[in-house]
Specification:
By secondary structure, the chain is of the alpha+beta class. It folds into three domains: 153 residues, Alpha-Beta Plaits, CATH 3.30.70.330; 79 residues, Alpha-Beta Plaits; 80 residues, Alpha-Beta Plaits, CATH 3.30.70.330. 30% of the residues lie in helices and 22% in strands. The chain is built from ten helices and 16 strands. Helix 1 packs across helix 10. The chain is elongated. The two termini are 24 Å apart. The structure holds one DNA strand. GO terms for molecular function: RNA binding. Keywords: Repeat, RNA-binding. Belongs to the RRM elav family. It comes from Triplophysa tibetana.
Length: 388
DNA sequence: TGCAATT
């Protein structure tokens, strides 16, 4: 067995293999995030202009108002446990809820995290807003107190001038009330506005006034009138979308799925040479049962693949691990190992990822990565319990 | 050169 994973890594790095541009993009995105902190840049597949509208400050009133957060744009496959694990890395959580479709049980891509301490809620916004997870960039903001008056306050706006920016859209609608979020949908290929957007107001009555005031009107300088109406309820849509999805070809959901899948297959071949493993994209497992040969491989830990991360700084925390590994795929858990007395990181940590191929790309890409003034060493976890 | 577990 001559081929090892580090050879895959060197292939990735050397550019002699075609996945280089992809992993390079992931690293570039990650570096932006690690060096610049949270941001509000665009959000994956569905494409969307920036959305930094709401909630730098907690809403008034209620006991929960300074501790309760809403988290938007979560990856579809993220579970409530993973949400809790991610936000639990900041501070003690009082409660945590991932919102699911009532019928299908599918995640609606958002949830709530209520901390015990207001300062942890603030810290979570500062450190986790803008975190990239898979193809998403999550948004973390204070939740507004739940009430009937804030429901159904989302508007769908079409016929917008292609030149209109999100800021201009907000300016047009801000006269009717407090805007919670806004967005303009962009063409996935050209990045140009599709002339369609959404405005969510704080209260339904504000949205109603905006319809009365703007539906059928021409924005300043525009030649055509715009249409303003209540947006479809997304929870109805998602179960429909899910059903139709089953009967349709995958379509173009985000940039380059075919290319990525092709890359995965090529990666598969390399990994197969290295470890004799086939990933979930491989056609090999005819009976759908994972080969027992995989059971003794490094890192394989029941559910998912455990990754050892060495040379973390004493002040490293879980959020840095989420930031580094999240973009590569499904991460179920991260852990920084600390000294019991000093509570400082002992220099290493662990990350559990669901899929072998994503874990392998993360390792190949992050091993040797410079974090601050340290060079990380990243590999599958081994069993060093009874050292010889 | 280091692979946890006060859940």
């Amino acid at each position: 067995m001559a081929v090892r994973l580090c050879d895959v890594a060197s292939l990735l790095r050397s550019g002699s293999w075609s996945a280089e541009p992809w992993s390079g993009q992931v690293i570039a995105a990650m570096e932006t995030q690690l060096s610049n902190g949270p941001n509000c840049t665009s959000n994956g597949p569905n494409s969307i202009s920036n959305n930094c509208t709401s909630s730098a400050e907690p809403p008034d009133g209620g006991e929960d108002s300074k501790t309760n957060l809403i988290v938007n744009y979560l990856p579809q496959n993220m579970t409530q446990e993973e949400l809790k694990s991610l936000f639990g890395s900041i501070g003690e959580i009082e409660s945590c809820k991932l919102v699911r479709d009532k019928i299908t049980g599918q995640s609606l891509g958002y949830g709530f995290v209520n901390y015990v301490e207001p300062k942890d809620a603030e810290k979570a916004i500062n450190t986790l807003n803008g975190l990239r997870l898979q193809t998403k960039t999550i948004k973390v903001s204070y939740a507004r107190p739940s009430s009937a008056s804030i429901r159904d306050a989302n508007l769908y706006v079409s016929g917008l001038p292609k030149t209109m920016t999100q800021k201009e859209l907000e300016q047009l609608f801000s006269q009717y009330g407090r805007i919670i979020t806004s967005r303009i949908l962009l063409d996935q290929v050209t990045g140009v506005s599709r002339g369609v957007g959404f405005i969510r107001f704080d209260r339904r009555v504000e949205a109603e006034e905006a319809i009365k005031g703007q539906n059928g009107q021409k924005p300043p300088g525009a030649t055509e009138p715009i249409t303003v109406k209540f947006a479809n309820n997304p929870s109805q849509k998602s179960s429909q979308a899910l059903l139709s999805h089953l009967y349709q070809s995958p379509g173009r959901r985000y940039p380059g799925p075919l290319a990525q899948q092709a890359q995965r297959f090529r990666l598969d071949n390399l990994l197969n040479m290295a470890y004799g493993v086939k990933s979930r994209f491989s056609p090999v497992n005819i009976d759908g049962v994972t080969s027992l040969a995989g059971m003794n491989l490094p890192g394989h830990a029941g559910a998912g693949w455990c990754i050892f991360v060495y040379n973390l700084a004493p002040d490293a925390d879980e959020s840095v691990l989420w930031q580094m590994f999240g973009p590569f795929g499904a991460v179920t858990n991260v852990k920084v190992i600390r000294d019991f007395n000093t509570n400082k990181c002992k220099g290493f940590g662990f990350v559990t990822m669901t899929n072998y191929d994503e874990a392998a790309v993360a390792i190949a890409s992050l091993n040797g990565y410079r974090l601050g003034d340290r060079v990380l060493q990243v590999s599958f976890k081994t069993n060093k319990t009874h050292k010889a």
